[in-house]
Amino acid sequence: AMKVLLLLAGLVTGVSPFVYTCNEVKQMLWNDDVTTINGTRACVVLPATVKFPYNDDPYTWYLYNTYIVDTDSGMEYELSGFEEDGSFCKEGAGPWMIKSDDKDQFMCSSPKYQYAEIIFLFTSDEAKVVQTSTTPLNAVYGKGTHVFVAPEGSLSIENVSIDDDKETTLQFYTGAGSGEEEERFPLTTAEKFVSGTITVVIGPVTTVVIEDDVQVRLSLISFQDYRQFDSAQIAPLLQQ
C-alpha cells in the first residue's frame, strides 16, 4: 500500500528568516525594513512557468527593478541575473539586503496572476538548488544535500526507485541553511527509502539529505493547495 507522509513545515518553526516569500519581502520593503541576512549564497527562484525575457507583469518588475545587495562588497545583483545563469544563486560574503527601485510596485499578484510568487533564500550551504514545478520533475539524486524549492508553496516528493540491492534513508528539513544556526530544522527522523512512498511538505523550501552512496529516483511536484494536487490519498489529508 502507498504510504503518505504529511509534513507541516510551518508548524515546526514558522517561516525561516533565511527563506522569504513574496509577501514577506513586500512587507519588508513597504515598512522600510533594512534587515540584513547572513549567508554566503543568496538565491532567487520563480515558478518554472515564468520564462525569459520575463515580459510578464508583475515578474517584469521583480526581475528588473529589485536587487539583492552584498553589503560586504557593495555589489548589487538584479534579480534577472539569478534566473538567466540557471544556478539561481550568487556567491558573496554577506550579509545580504533586498532593495527595490520603487517599493510600491513590488506586488505579489496581478490581473493574470492571483498568486505571483517569488522565493528568496539565503544559506552558507553549497547544496544545489532545484526548482520544482506543477508538472512532475522526475530525476535521480545521489549522496549529499539537495534543496527543493516549490514557489507555489508546497511540495510532493514521491520515492520512485533506488539502486538494486541498496538501502538508504531520507532526512527532511524545512529551510535551506547549513544547520539550525541558519534556521534549517528537521521535519522528521530519517525515513527509510521505500518506493511508492509520497511525502507532502507544506512549505516552500525543503532540504533532503541522502547519507549513503546510493542513487534514488524522485518525482517532485509543487502545488499551491490540495485542489491543485490530484492524489486521492493526499487531498483528504490536506483538508483536515
Write up what this structure looks like.
With 240 residues, this protein is mainly beta. The chain folds into two domains: 4-12 and 129-239, Jelly Rolls (Sandwich), CATH 2.60.120; 17-123, no CATH class. It has helices at residues 9-13, 22-30, 59-65, 79-84, 235-239; strands at 4-8, 19-20, 41-45, 66-70, 76-78, 89-91, 96-100, 119-123, 128-131, 137-141, 144-149, 154-162, 169-174, 185-186, 191-192, 198-202, 205-210, 216-223. The strands form four sheets. Strands 9, 11, 13, 14, 15 and 17 form a six-stranded mixed sheet that branches. It is globular and about 55 Å long. Residues 9-16 and 226-240 have low confidence and may be disordered. Residues 1-17 form the signal peptide. Keywords: Signal.
Core attributes:
18 strands, signal, Jelly Rolls, globular, six-stranded mixed β-sheet, mainly beta, disordered C terminus, five-stranded mixed β-sheet, 13% helix, 2 domains, 240 residues
TL;DR?
The chain has helices spanning 9-13, 22-30, 59-65, 79-84, 235-239; strands spanning 4-8, 19-20, 41-45, 66-70, 76-78, 89-91, 96-100, 119-123, 128-131, 137-141, 144-149, 154-162, 169-174, 185-186, 191-192, 198-202, 205-210, 216-223. By secondary structure, the protein is mainly beta.
Secondary structure layout plus pairing:
Layout (H helix, E strand, L loop, with lengths): L3 E5 H5 L5 E2 L1 H9 L10 E5 L13 H7 E5 L5 E3 H6 L4 E3 L4 E5 L18 E5 L4 E4 L5 E5 L2 E6 L4 E9 L6 E6 L10 E2 L4 E2 L5 E5 L2 E6 L5 E8 L11 H5 L1
Parallel strand pairs: 1-16, 9-11
Antiparallel strand pairs: 2-8, 3-6, 3-8, 4-5, 4-7, 10-18, 11-17, 12-16, 12-18, 13-14, 13-15, 13-17
